[in-house]
Amino acid sequence: MPETKYAKPLPQMEGLAGEFYGHCKNGELRFQRCKCCGAFRHIPREICPECNAFDWEWAKSSGSGTVYTWTVVERALHPAFASDTPYAAVVVEMAEGVRLLSQVVDCPPDKLRIGMPVQLELRAMTPEVTLPFFRRLIDNQ
Amino acid sequence: MLKDQACIVGIGETPFCRKPGSGMSEMTLQLKAATAATADAGLKGSQIDGILPFPALGRAEAFAGALGCENLRFSATLHLGGAAPVAALRAAAMAVVSGTASHVLIPGGWNGYSGARARAAVQDMNSLPGAAIARDFYVPFGMTAPPQWYALMARRHMHDYGTTHEQFGAVAIAMRKHAQLNPAALMCGKPLTMAEYLASPMIADPYRLNDCCLETDGAAAFVVTTVARARDLGKQPIYLMGVGVGQPYPADEITNRRDFHRTGLTSAAPEAFRMAGIAPADVDFAQIYDCFTFEVIQQIEEAGFCKRGEGGAFVEHGGIELGGRLPVNTHGGLLSQAHVLGLSHVVEAVRQLRGECGARQVQNAEIGVVTGWGDFGDGAIAILRR
Q1: Is B169 exposed, middle or buried (0-12, 13-18, 19+ CB in 10 A)?
Q2: Residues A37-84: pLDDT tens digits?
Q3: Where are the alpha helices (DSSP H) in A6-125?
Q4: HSE-up of B134 (CA within 13 Å, CB side)?
Q5: pLDDT band (50, 70, 90) for residue B45
Q6: Interface mutation target, options B123, B124, B136, B139, chain A, most CBs of A under 10 Å
Q7: B221 phi and psi, to 5 degrees?
């Protein structure tokens, strides 16, 4: 594979976000789950907003979800994404109940639907950073 | 209780422009508006003892140093993005009513067209409460700017309530019609039809170019004092009847809201109307923060002018145009006058209540509403009367 520098912005691999993306790098999507009340949460936070407990674990996600809402970016507002347009950004509602922002890959814009089932596809963008993307479930059938 | 205890006594604005740019620093622009507002109020700069600058657009000490405010007693910046000016109106009222300050200045302005900020939004996210969240969880997926984030809200509203592209278009067209009656509006002389609206290029579905606010250079400011002091000043005082500020939950993250359509206004508006002792139906006009067309529809709903889900129908058929059931953004708004961070919405409300609006005057305007929307859905609302 030719050496090309990855020019798009990436998350900072520090703190709780660093832990989240560290699990992605290890091939797993994990969300925080409160060890006191059992509630899943995302974005990562220091304590549980439901019961304010400090004890939590990184619980493995099923990787399954549905599209909660979406947009198709036709004009990038950051130059690093200009060559990607049009791209489908989505909010995925995971089986665990939390939602996360991502993209559905290899999906024609006119096929995007709210409620559409999607499945996790982890992609290593650099040796350090792996991002969680999603693919239409129908693609896997 | 702040009802009828504070007044807006002075307003000021600069001209608005795009190319070639204002040719002034952002501080100079804001001082032009600030001195216009103090002069309008019949005050000297040195009489200002409270200043509430817009986030990231200058420090109170710099304004005070330039204006000669030798006795600055109260300053704060409210980190609510475009909701900051209306939230600052509440803070100013709290300050003057409590005796913390006597005359409070709220300035704001920028080189939104010619400066670097608007075009390099991704580098300027530090003013967002959710800056680190956006950096780590939105931006890597190509979601780098407000129209993209808010498009997610608009799309879900379309799904849940059947809101249409044409209803978004009705908002854009109403703002543009009002701009034709306002010589200061940058879109004066450039009317917009539905066919032109629907043909404008898509930016982030469902937002087209004509759903997005202008990028402009300009500044505005206003001055707040007590009712007692207002009586001694030159201009007709405009009374603050009710005010509220709120945030969605969580405010720093868009995707995991239990109620996806809740904004700051959802809690702020009932508080403001309760304080004022009036109902939304009693309002003669509304200046609604119109960063994008859907945000007008959503704020009309969350402010209580109609039920949630009915905002699309509310704005159709001239409903928010002059002569309609609720004239909205009689100056043309961010969409068709200029983007002055929500300050010009306050200025226009005051002008309407003073009866200074000429061809775009709402007849017998007695009560008006101003809203602000900022960051990931923060909201502020003021109910003003003459």
Answers
A1: buried
A2: 999 999 999 999 999 999 999 999 999 999 999 999 999 999 999 999
A3: 15-25
A4: 22
A5: very high
A6: B136
A7: -160, 160
B268 belongs to a structural domain:
yes
Within-domain flag for B125: no
Q: Is the previous residue joined to A49 through a cis bond, with omega within 30 degrees of 0?
A: no
Tell me whether residues A69 and B201 touch, CB distance under 8 A.
no
Q: What is the pLDDT of residue B120?
A: 56
CB B29 within 8 A of CB B1: no
Does residue B374 lie in a domain region? Answer: yes
* Beta-sheet strand order (sheet of A40-41): A40-41, A30-34, A56-60
ipTM: 0.96
Residue B152, in any domain of the structure: no
Strands B367-374 and B217-226, sheet pairing: unpaired
Q: Which residues of B touch A9 (CB under 8 A)?
A: 122, 135, 139-140, 144
Could you state, in order of their start, the residue ranges of all structural domains in chain A? 15-140
Q: CATH number of the domain that B10 lies in?
A: 3.40.47.10
Chain A interface test: which of B143, B158, B159 (most A C-beta within 10 Å)? B143
Number of domains in chain B: 1
Q: Please, where are the H alpha helices in B110-145?
A: 131-133
Query: Which of chain A's residues have a Cβ under 8 Å away from the Cβ of B136?
Result: 11-12, 17, 21
Q: Looking at residue A141, what is its pLDDT? A: 47
